[in-house]
Specification:
elongated, two-stranded antiparallel ribbon, about 270 residues, seven-stranded mixed β-sheet, 11 helices, 9 strands, alpha/beta
């Protein structure tokens, strides 16, 4: 039985359907599933946390390889199915919860955990920000193809976002595979991509709010961006005295390490 047949069989058995309110599109392409799973290296992490496992397309493989697997799904119906599927797996824990209300720090350590999931596209950015706030060693996620492009920050590139810039400042970005819309059931209107972010340095998540200020208007200089916020006047004055040249640049012109160092200075002299 291939993955499409398995998913359709479970939907029929439990009298279920994909719910738009949960952004449910089940991955059914066996080749893509295998490619993604191999990229995860799940056995090398103390804890694996899967967000929105749905009917277990990835969970099946993760359950066999993970030391500890925590599956968090907001849909009660999916949780019922998962509990039935993995009732004998002592390394698997199923939790019914909106992930934004789930605290992974209660039962896992951020320094060696893997976040993995097919993220609902309407809250992708909020979830990634939450991962960053909680901390991780590796983040491996399915996102809309256009989002994957924006998250792959390149200085002076056309697609520059504060979230992409922050991710590149603290980790390594890898595109694992593009995923055509036909690889899902039901088929979404957009294509997707599976990406991995490996944390390579310790970071201060509070700096992300400064990134959002610097990228608020990509065509404005750093000086003009900071002028809009009274709380950063002291930082602006410090930069005028100590690094005047950078104020005439735009945030998107800076390399990731330059952006992080700049954000640190702005925070320190606020």
């Amino acid at each position: 039985m291939n993955e499409k047949e398995r998913v359709l069989s479970l939907l029929k058995e439990y009298n279920l359907y994909a719910k738009k309110s949960f952004g449910q599109n089940f991955l059914i392409n066996d080749g893509i599933i295998n490619r993604i799973f191999k990229s995860l290296e799940a056995s090398s992490f103390d804890d694996v946390i899967e967000i929105g496992p749905g009917l277990g397309s990835l969970t099946n493989k993760l359950a066999d390889e993970s030391k500890k697997l925590i599956c968090v799904d907001a849909d009660r119906d999916m949780v019922t199915v998962l509990n039935d599927l993995y009732t004998e797996k002592t390394n698997v824990k199923i939790i019914e919860s909106d992930f934004l209300r789930y605290n992974p720090n209660l039962e896992t350590r951020q320094d060696n955990r893997l976040f993995v999931g097919n993220l609902p596209y309407n809250i992708t950015s909020r979830l990634i920000e939450y991962f960053l706030d909680c901390g991780f060693k590796r983040m491996a996620i399915m996102v809309q193809k256009e989002v994957a492009i924006k998250l792959d920050y390149k200085s002076s590139g056309k697609e520059c976002s504060p979230l992409g810039a922050f991710l590149k400042s603290i980790g390594e970005y890898k595109l694992v595979t593009l995923v055509d819309s036909s690889c899902f059931y039901p088929q979404p209107k957009v294509d997707s991509a599976f990406i991995i972010i490996d944390k390579t340095k310790e970071y201060d998540f509070s700096l992300y709010s400064i990134y959002k200020i610097l990228f608020k208007d990509p065509n404005k200089t750093i000086s003009n961006c900071l002028k809009q916020f009274k709380e950063y006047i002291n930082s602006l004055n410090y930069l005028k005295e100590n690094d005047d040249e950078i104020l005439f640049k735009r945030a998107r012109q800076l390399q990731p390490n330059q952006l992080y160092d700049l954000a640190l200075i702005i925070k320190e002299h606020k």
